[in-house]
Design goal:
Blueprint lengths: L14 E10 L2 H13 L5 E4 L7 H5 L6 H27 L12 H27 L23 E6 L7 H10 L4 E8 L7 H26 L51 H5 L1 E2 L2 E2 L9 H14 L1 H4 L8 H9 L13 H4 L3 H10 L13 H18 L8 H8 L1
Antiparallel strand pairs: 1-3, 1-4, 2-3, 5-6
Length: 409
């Protein structure tokens, strides 16, 4: 050996002593050594073994970490964020009233709150483990020892770092040897923390520049108005070959793209030919008779349509106590006009044409049902309403004479 060649315990120029690494014969000597090091007050040290050693955490004096509290804290934060987000979107920023349902209620928001609790807690556990263990750490001074490679096969090691307040290279080495270590090595590390390689710095700069491209592109698109969609990866039917209304169309003999309406087409605002059936008016006054034959089939059809479109507010009996009306009254919805009972005199005395007009045009908070019900269906509903009114306001004169005698007995 050259006299100028440093010994294994002598640091080379530009490096420093990072700690001592001791090897033991098995898990039991390692556990006993860990207990002794713990009792002496060392704090910056660790043990390495190819498999978990039973009781080693107690021997090292490892205390519970704050990780469970971090997971709990972030889980509660996720729940609060979910509840606040849904309350803001549904009850404040964009309220939509649907069938008298509350704008915001806790039971409806439980699934999203549960999902964000899991998301926040899992993220806290993952990031917390990395942070508390100072990871990722791609290099450690113990890697400078070729013997340390056996830590994944059959080697049991205990390492004490030089930054420990009680560390002294000579006395600490003697301590490890007295604890039964077969070998004690000195681990070295660079005297100064090495900087990032140039290619890593350039990769970071290029990554930042590339990450700025999308927001800059979005800002440019928002500042420039265009007729076509700014980002349109799916063409759909927006750019298909088509004719423009009132434009030329060489496909047709007359050279026009727009086709004339089908014969017999009328605008919705134009009075239909059969004004009695379509409007229920005669010279501007509601008619008092049905403009189509009354039959049992028409009555059954009216009952079906009434239970679909009318009963939710007016109730199955026509008393104005439908589920939507009850809910709106309980919540005291602003602007809500309670549906009128169909059995009050003011409604019973209305001609059938006026009832037809109410269904067609709507009244107060009741919308028009002209788009949902054909004129024949609207007359069927009026017929069923008359039957409901008769059921609640029947007179003795309504019973045929041959059956009235049976009731008078």
């Amino acid at each position: 050996m050259n006299n100028h060649e440093p010994t294994p315990n002598t640091p080379l120029p530009g490096v420093r002593v990072a700690g001592l690494l001791a090897e033991f014969d098995g898990p039991e000597p390692l556990r006993l050594a860990a207990e002794r090091v713990r009792d002496l007050g060392y704090v910056h040290w660790d043990v390495y073994s190819p498999y978990p050693v039973h009781g080693i955490e107690r021997a090292m004096g490892i205390r519970p970490t704050v990780l469970p509290w971090l997971v709990l804290l972030f889980g509660v934060a996720g729940c609060a964020a979910a509840i606040l987000m849904q309350w803001w979107m549904n009850a404040r920023d964009y309220p939509v009233l649907v069938s008298g349902k509350p704008l915001w209620s806790l039971p409806a928001n439980i699934p999203i709150a549960f999902e964000l609790v899991i998301l926040f807690a899992a993220a806290a556990a993952f990031i917390g483990v990395l942070g508390l263990n100072r990871l990722p750490q791609f290099w450690h001074p113990v890697f400078s020892s070729p013997r340390f490679r056996r830590a994944t096969t059959d080697g049991f090691f205990l390492g004490i770092e030089a930054q420990d307040p009680r560390f002294h290279e000579t006395s600490t080495r003697e301590l490890l040897e007295s604890l039964g270590a077969t070998t004690v090595e000195t681990c070295f590390a660079p005297a100064t923390r090495p900087g990032l390689p140039a290619w890593v710095r350039w990769a970071g700069v290029i990554g930042v520049l590339v990450a700025l491209v999308p927001p800059l592109w979005i800002a440019r698109a928002r500042a420039i108005r265009a007729d076509r969609p700014r980002v349109h990866p799916i063409q759909d039917m927006d750019f298909q070959p088509r004719y423009v209304a009132q434009g030329p169309g060489p496909l047709f003999a007359d050279g026009r793209a727009m086709r004339p309406p089908v014969p017999g087409t009328i605008p919705r605002s134009q009075p239909p030919a059969d004004s009695l059936l379509e409007t229920g008016l005669d010279n501007g006054k509601p008619i008092t008779h049905f403009p189509l034959p009354v039959s049992q089939a028409l009555m059954v059809r009216g009952k079906e349509r009434y239970e679909i479109y009318c009963a939710v507010c007016h109730g199955l009996a026509g008393d104005g106590r439908g589920p939507v009306a009850i809910r709106a009254l309980e919540r005291a919805e602003p602007g809500w006009v309670a549906p009128r009972s169909l059995h009050v005199d003011a409604v019973r005395q209305q001609p059938v044409g006026q009832l037809f007009q109410t269904i067609t045009r709507g009244l107060n908070t009741m919308p028009s049902y002209a788009a949902q019900l054909t004129p024949e269906d609207r007359w069927a509903v009026v017929l069923y309403i008359r039957a409901l009114q008769r059921s609640q306001n029947a007179r003795l004169d309504d019973i045929p004479r041959d059956k009235r005698a049976l009731l008078e007995r």
